[in-house]
Structures are given as C-alpha cells and as structure tokens.
Design a protein that fits this description.
The protein is 38% helix and 13% strand. It is α/β, with parallel strands linked by helices. Adenosine-5-diphosphoribose (APR) binds next to helix 10.
Length: 260
C-alpha cells in the first residue's frame, strides 16, 4: 500500500471514529469499477455524447406518451448507460460501505447514482437523490413501484391511487428533486459531522450543497477520488485513489480501531 493511501486512510479513520453522524455522498465514480461509465471527465458519457439539455422534463410534461415511446428506443448515450447498468454488479467499495453501516461507522448514504448497487450490496440506509432506475414513480403523489410490479397497460401509465402520470423514478434534467427525498437529504446533512465524498465531481446541485452545509456546521469532509474536485481544498482528508481500493482499506483500519 502506498504511503499516501496509508496516511490518508489513517487520518480518515481517526476522524470517522471520533464522529457522531457519518454520511457518504456518493457519485458515479463509486460505480466506475463496476463498469458503469461516469458522466464527466475523459471517458464520461456527457463528455462523449454531450450533456442533455435542461428541457428533458418539460418535454416529458408536454407529451408524456411520446416520452414513454422514446424510452423504449434510447439514444446512443442512454443505450451505452442502460447496457452497462444492466450488466453491473457491486464492487468492493459498495461492500465496504455496507459493512461500515453494519459496524456503526456510517449512518447514511446519499447517492446520486440510479444504479441500485448499494441495495444489491446490502446497505439499508440509502437516499437516492436522483431516483432509482429499477423503480417507477407517480409525478402526482410520489408513490413508487418496482418496475416489474407495475403492469403498463397504456402509455403514459397512470397512478392507481391518484390518477397522476407515472414515469421512471430517475430524476430528469430540469425535474425538481422529489420533496420527500430532498427533505431526507437535508435532514441527514444537518445531523452530519463527517461527510465522505466518494466519486463525485461535486458540481451538480442540490447534492453539491450538502458538503458545504456540513462544513458550515463545523463538520469534516473526507474526499475519495483519483481526481481533483472543487471540494478538495476544503476537505480535511483527500485520498487520491479509486473507491474500490480505498474503501476496503479504510474499513480494515476502522475495524482495527474496534466496533463503534
Ligand atoms: N473511484 C472514485 N472516484 C472516481 C473513480 C473511482 N474508481 N473513477 C472516477 N472517479 C471520479 C471522477 O474523478 C469524477 O470526479 O468520479 C467523479 C465522477 O464525476 P461525474 O461523472 O461528474 O459524476 P457525478 O458527480 O456523480 O455527477 C452528478 O450529474 O449528470 C448528472 O445525474 C447525473 O448523478 C449525476 C450527477
């Protein structure tokens, strides 16, 4: 193990062990080692295919039937993402976070990823700020259903409870974050005295606001990312390593320190 990783992990473990409420803010980099491409950076999907414009959600609302028909024929950018998502399995980083939760070192995960990897790895306290690709959601009452438990008889499908239009749970560009989810994120950030920033470029809001709120509340930031981000300079610890490598090492160091 290189010295930087060992030093960084040692510092991070000391802060986590001394913290009351640790929250992980997770981005696409967390699932890069599961074969799911990130969005920005050299091989990023948006870098290659261009970032979707913010009118995605408006187009959905203008013609939800057409949106559903198009959902069945995804664009090249979305096809690349959809096929990678379909084949992906959790990596060592996901399993390390699950065990950190079990051992009381981690109180919640706020993920920007729609990939369901944390659930498959066994984590339980997960807040999906951008939704989950395996679910549908009513745009009226925010009811959610697993995709395979909601028979689609008509397009657009409507909610059996409120009659609202049902769409994929994934939050589109231009779509407001569902209020129930945003409330949970804000509550976790207000309790948090140590936030792990794992595999996020920290440029998309409102997710990128939570670390700033933690800092303002006197909390600590620990960044795990091979690349620099706008939060690197304000993080107490920066670990320039892939999360699939760094998180198992961090877990091992925390276990040496004993149960929380
Ligand atoms: N381990 C940790 N971090 C990694 C790894 C890895 N193995 N590989 C890449 N990274 C880092 C990159 O250096 C980059 O900083 O992950 C980050 C990925 O950044 P983005 O692609 O911008 O992803 P994210 O921050 O999750 O984007 C936020 O933007 O496009 C929207 O809805 C989409 O949820 C997404 C949001």
């Amino acid at each position: 193990m290189n010295d930087d990783l060992s030093t960084g992990v040692g510092q991070a473990a000391a802060i986590i062990a001394a913290s009351r409420h640790v929250v992980a803010l997770v981005g696409a980099g967390m699932s890069a080692e599961s074969g799911i491409p990130t969005f920005r950076g050299k091989e990023g999907i948006w870098t290659k295919h261009g970032e979707p414009d913010l009118r995605d959600y408006d187009r959905f609302r203008e013609d939800p039937k057409r949106w559903w028909e198009q959902r069945m024929n995804p664009s090249p950018a979305m096809s690349e993402l959809v096929s990678a998502l379909a084949e992906a399995v959790p990596n060592e980083g996901h399993f390390a976070l699950k065990e950190m939760e079990d051992r009381g070192f981690l109180q919640a995960i706020i993920t920007q990823n729609i990939d369901n990897m944390h659930q498959i790895a066994g984590s339980t306290r997960i807040i999906e700020i951008h939704g989950n690709r395996t679910k549908l959601r009513c745009t009226g009452c925010s009811n959610r259903w697993p995709l395979d438990e909601f028979p689609i008889a008509e397009l657009p499908p409507s909610c059996p409870d409120c009659g609202g239009i049902v769409k994929g749970d994934t939050v589109m560009f231009g779509e407001p974050i569902p209020p129930d989810v945003l409330e949970e994120c804000i509550a976790q950030a207000s309790l948090c005295d140590c936030m792990l920033l794992i595999g996020t470029s920290a440029v998309v809001y409102p997710a990128a606001q939570f670390p700033v709120d933690v800092l303002r509340g006197g909390g600590a930031l620990i960044e795990i990312n091979p690349e620099d981000t706008p939060l690197s300079n304000v993080s107490q610890v920066v670990i320039r390593e892939g999360s699939g490598t760094a998180l198992p090492v961090l877990l091992a160091r925390l276990k040496e320190a004993g149960e929380k």
